[in-house]
Structures are given as structure tokens and as C-alpha cells.
Amino acid sequence: MRYHWTECPGCRCQVAVNTTAASGVITGSLRRWSTDRSINDGRAIRGVPADATGGFATECVCGQPLTLGATADAVGSERGE
Question: Whole-angstrom Cα distance, residue 4 to residue 74?
Fold first, then answer.
């Protein structure tokens, strides 16, 4: 799982995007919240194609286009027993 953090230039909310990639397709979720916490919502990301570098484009909940690079802010993994 990859984690991206950004600020939406449209609604000025903080945005956290959690994704996985398989066969060049991005799936995951986007969560946004305002500084005053009056906005706290999100949406699923399904079937978004990755670009040649592994980055992708999606939209904030407000509709503002967001472009996220292939380099995530953090990478997580689950441990198998």
C-alpha cells in the first residue's frame, strides 16, 4: 500500500490517498478534511490507469483534478505469518 499526502488546490483541504497498483491500474481510497474539521469525507479510487512513470491522476471529492507521482510519501506492507 502506498500513501500520498497533499493539499487540494481547489477546496484547500488536506488529502490522504492510499493506493495499490496492479498491472498498471491504481485502486484505493481518498480522504479529505478541512483545517477546521467542518469537512471530513472521502471516496473510492477504482481502475485509474497509471502513467508511464507509475504516477496517476484522480479527482478530489470537490472535483479538483489531482496528479500524484509514482513516489509515495510512505509505503506499507502487511506481514504474513
Answer: 7
